[in-house]
Amino acid sequence: MPTIVFIEPDGQQKSVTSVTGQSLMQAAVQNGVRGIEADCGGSCTCATCHAYIDPQWAERLPAIRALEQDMLEFALDTNAHSRLTCQIQVTDDLDGLVVRIPHAQA
Ligand code: FES
């Protein structure tokens, strides 16, 4: 089972054992990661699951789709590494992935 490293808005690191096939958002919510609200439950309509993906991992992730890109316009403090965590499925290849939650979502 892959381990995902979430860095919460205050800098605190939380390593979470995830299940292959669930989304990064689900892994965060189920493990009480602060700053991932996921108000829409994963239907890509709220942008409250926004996070920054560590640049080293960017190429291993699925490409961003138009709906996710559009919804990111409603997220706080986006940058080139922004993704919506509900749109990324955990795979074994993502073991060790580092995900940072923006300060604005504290
Ligand atoms: S949980 Fe709402 S957009 Fe991801």
TrEMBL record:
Its cofactor is [2Fe-2S] cluster. Pfam families: Fer2. One of its GO terms (molecular function) is metal ion binding. Keywords: 2Fe-2S, Iron, Iron-sulfur, Metal-binding. PROSITE patterns: 2FE2S_FER_2, ADX. One of its GO terms (biological process) is P450-containing electron transport chain. It comes from the Bacteria. InterPro entries: 2Fe-2S_ferredoxin-like_sf, 2Fe-2S_ferredoxin-type, Adrenodoxin-like, Adrenodoxin_Fe-S_BS, Beta-grasp_dom_sf. Residues 2-105 form the 2Fe-2S ferredoxin-type domain. Belongs to the adrenodoxin/putidaredoxin family. This is 2Fe-2S ferredoxin-type domain-containing protein.
